[in-house]
Amino acid sequence: KMAAAAGVAAAAGLWSEVNRCGQNGDFARALKSVNKILQINKDDVTALQCKVVCLIQNGNFKEALGVINTHTKVLTSDVIAFEKAYCEYRLNRIESALKTIQSASQQTDKLKELYGQVLYRLERYDDCLAAYRDLIRNSQDEYEEERKTNLSAVVAAQSTWEKVVPEDLGLREATYELCYNSACALIGQGKLNEAMKKLQKAEELCRQSLSEDSDVTEEDIEAELAIIHGQMAYIMQLQGRTEDALQLYNQIIKLKPTDVGLLAVIANNIITINKDQNVFDSKKKVKLTNAEGVEHKLSKKQLQAIEFNKALLAMYTNQADQCRKLSASLQSQSPEHLLPVLIQAAQLCREKQHAKAVALLQDFADQHPANAAEIKLTMAQLKIAQGSVTKACMILRSIEELQHKPGMVSALVTMYSHEEDIDSAIEVFTQAIQWYQQYQARTNHSCCVFQPKSPVHLSLIREAANFKLKHGRKKEAISDLEELWKQNPKDVHTLAQLISAYSLVDPEKAKVLSKHLPSSDTMSLKVDVDALENSHGATYVRKKAGKLTGDNQQKEQGQGEVKKKKKKKKGKLPKNYDPKVTPDPERWLPMRERSYYRGRKKGKKKDQVGKGTQGSTTTGSELDASRTASSPPTSPRPGSGAAVSAASNVIPPRHQKPAGAPATKKKQQQKKKKGAKGGW
């Protein structure tokens, strides 16, 4: 009994110590006292709960979860549900945390708060929005501002990743976090200028908030502003201000922020700016995307975008195996996604395996008909690159949902015209026009005889008619021109084209239609004749015309006046011209072709001593410019044109001085003294 009494007294003292340490925030000492209590009674529920809390406060989530799982009989889900779910959440076991919360018999406010966080991490934004609305509606404490911030973050995520138009929540943007989330929602809607203004307001609020604390340094403020500046740089990048964006991105990286997610996003954006240039910088930046914990900081779409860019960077750096490995991994994760197969096809094209690339794309199009249109466009592009224009046209015409589009019709007609296949081009026009006729018949249920056609339909008919007329198919153009004229009987240009077409097929019909042409009296051009006559061009024409008329009148009147003939200019003669000497009859021929040409005398300058230092000779090796010219750099600077040849760095021989040239300086100076003005 005495031992039991001593144990109870010791336990009471230990509990006092635990209570005091807990109030002071010294959880390490509190944990030691709790462990001593558990030595007295290992199944003490309160002590076990306190131990779990101390471990959580010290950041030992794995150990805390181990204690909970070891004492499941004592620490039931009703007792420890929140602590268990929180440990799982912090250990990034999000699915397990969700199950723990849902299995709890009683949903406390703490569990509801954690439930909202878990749903956000799982990207279940609709459920998350409902959870936070319920919390804000039914809670009244000092954490209301934090809940509103989380609610605005959910709305921003919906706008960014799901392209949902955010509703106005009526939140007063009094904090920089709320302003930042509002800016993110605006970016998702494409309202970049408004988003930039919100971010500038968020920056101002952040500076004001942090400057009130005397312990906060300027470096701390800049570190807190890093995420706001990162979003500003992203807007600049979207607006095409890549230089400004790149400068701001690099400034953030120099600050070395602790947020690995922010660093990964910035590094990825820099890689997208670099593209296939400055790949060495991109290879350095890609290391930031591989930091530990990045996968838990970013959304699935962000992580996917980073992986895509890694595969593209591997392709640009000629790491073919790495590119194939990354793209294959991405395709296994998202079989229906277009980018992985497009990257694989691009890599095959770089290896000159165009046939394999087309086969790969065809397989994907067969397996995923919903995405076949974009894949077939790429296949057509590859066929054109190979010079197979007709096959490219066949692929394009197989895309049924695009056959009637004006852009597709224009492309096909241009390609067929290039191949001089006019019949196929006309067939493309005919199919597109028929599609619009059928569409109009389906959508227009009125009983009227005359139905006006859509602008696109009329535009296609006009283009078809013009194309047929251009290629001499006037008979085939008649039906199109009649349709256009019926739609607009006042169109004189169409009527004139129709008459021209009928004149070759049915002259009588052309005469009948010509009666519809307006008379010359009704065609008033509304031209200011005086202004036209006084213009510079008209004055010149009038003067010339006047001269010609005067000449004609002179001829008609039969006046015997002789026209003034233009004086021929005397040709210039050479300075040494002597009229007494007969000019050389072969002077117009090149010297080599003249009968008296004997050729140059050879051998005179053989082994001649040069004019340099005594005894020096000008050998052939010294005149070889390739020996003295600097060699080109081994690698071009980033951004330089790849088409510039290495030989452009070599000085041409005619600009190269011989090795013995410096020695001739004295004699050249002497010549200059004599009055010579020439030189190098």
From TrEMBL:
Residues 575-596 have a biased composition (Basic and acidic residues). TPR repeats lie at residues 226-259. One of its GO terms (biological process) is SRP-dependent cotranslational protein targeting to membrane. Residues 94-149 form a coiled coil. InterPro entries: Signal_recog_part_SRP72_RNA-bd, SRP72, SRP72_TPR-like, TPR-like_helical_dom_sf, TPR_rpt. One of its GO terms (cellular component) is signal recognition particle, endoplasmic reticulum targeting. Its main location: cytoplasm. Residues 543-599 form the Signal recognition particle SRP72 subunit RNA-binding domain. The keyword Cytoplasm applies. Residues 610-648 have a biased composition (Low complexity). Residues 542-680 are annotated as: Disordered. Pfam families: SRP72 (PF08492), SRP_TPR_like (PF17004), TPR_8 (PF13181). GO terms for molecular function: 7S RNA binding; ribosome binding. Transmembrane segments: none annotated. It is found in: Cytoplasm; Endoplasmic reticulum. Residues 563-573, 664-680 have a biased composition (Basic residues). SUPFAM superfamilies: TPR-like. PROSITE patterns: TPR. Belongs to the SRP72 family. This is Signal recognition particle subunit SRP72. It comes from Illadopsis cleaveri. The gene is Srp72.
